[in-house]
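Our collaborator T.R. sent over the components below with a one-line note: 'Predict the complex.' Nothing else. No constraints on interfaces, no templates requested, no preferences about which chain binds where. So this is a plain run: every listed entity goes in together, and whatever single assembly comes back becomes the starting point for the next discussion.
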Amino acid sequence: MSAIAKKEFRSYFLSPIGYVFSGAMLLLFGFFYMEVLATQSSDYIPMIYASVFSWLMMFLLPLITMRTFSEEIRTKSDQGLLTAPVGVFSIVMGKFLAAFYLFTVSLVATLIPAVVISFMGSPDWPKIFCTFIGALLCGAALIAIGNFISSLTQSQLVAAVATFGVLMFLFLIGNIASSISIDWIKNVFNWISFDARYQPFTNGILNLSSLVYFISIAAVFIFLTARKLESRRWS
Amino acid sequence: MIEVKNLSKRYGENIALSHVSFSVGENTVVGFLGPNGAGKSTTMNIITGYISASEGSVSIGGHNTLDEPNEAKKLIGYMPEMPPLYADMTVKEYLNFVYELKKVKLSREKHLREICALSRITDVYNRLIANLSKGYRQRVGLAQALVGNPPVLILDEPTVGLDPKQIIEVRNLIRNLGKNHTVILSSHILPEVQAVADRIMIINRGRLVADGTPYELEHGSEKNGEQKLTVHMEGDPKEIKRAIQSIHGVTRVTNDGLREPGVYEYEIDGSAKTDLRRPLFGIASKRGWPILSEESSALSLEDVFLRLTGSTYLSDNADQYFERKGNKK
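Returned assembly:
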């Protein structure tokens, strides 16, 4: 597992993907941050973290999950992994951890401006911290989904676009819910909505049910990806 | 070392492999031979655990590949038809990755250096795999299979894409590895397998159609009660052919063409129960046809292969073609 995670993480930075991902993330973040600074109040800092994180996840995570399995299937290098003495679960976990690690590193880097500001002002640290945890959990779930989609296709492009579509849907389903009058459908949509699950964290609440929700989603999709890889052996 | 029992693989209606069973002992080189699409790669993929069989079982060193996959996989070094390489890594990074992936316990530096020397990739050790030629990639694929020094090596067409010098090198390497490894290699090229294998298995359309040492396969036809003679005789070819055909035990006579003025070569197939040479001499002396040469030939491995895989001889087709032409005249 660690061998695969290490190799995957390195390969993010051997190809442009790692640089583009963290570069774009920090650039966009910096831009929004500058906008906030223009208001000359540190009250808005947690809010910036809250909104920028969710947008970044939606747009940039498909970029790091698109090739995890598609590329291996296309070049048939998965033969090397599947015939090595490691279980399917270790392969999937290794890939998941690598993507999650890259995501975490980029996320931590976005804290630098807030740290700098804290010398001169007083950003709401508990709120930022909670948002950070929320983003990590939400990101873990999204990475697991992205990896699963990547295991379904040989094409990185298809994987990226499909993942983007699914993530967009998961974030925006809450908006659809508000326009539906049938109660139970509304409830289901709200229950699924990633946005609604993520909101409590941005308000500084460590919401247990959201935490369990995100971790469960991640676990379910890691499991499904492992099943999918296993099923290739039987088809 | 390798026990394959009743292996079958179906893809929907298609049967890729049908009830294949064999076992391979230690320190042998086995050659899988068969035309393209015969089921060689499928068999290898099942043995290495890449795909699963629809039926049957495989055990490596006593470990069933379904019950104890990791134990079994630890014993195997596999080089697939398309080496599982990562283009964005250098050879060094890649082999280190494989070393960690296989959880090898041997001293890293020394072991990797040995493997590179064996597969002759030391001079590209620090180069990016994306920039390597096909032959080098093939050899990195071989090196990858050797990492961890597994007792069983499964090599799917190991010499594809190599130049003649490299082919000889790889053959020698495989022969040397065969001294203390169990090696299964596949090829659709006969001399390839003949050069290195102690034992040959011919697979055709998903079935194991022959299994034995090259010698046994070449002489197996005699056991089946066949013999083959090649003679040069002087005289009228039509009469000679008719006369030979009348000999008891002869199943087929073909005229291979003019060899010297008035002398034709004939190929005689017959049952091995009676010696055809004496009656042949009898007829020749009675009719006054000098026999200029006579040779009894075992079937070449090539013949065995072609016959078992259902391909027809080119010479047969040519014969028919010329006969038809002759009839028209």
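Summary for T.R.: Chain A has a mean pLDDT of 88.
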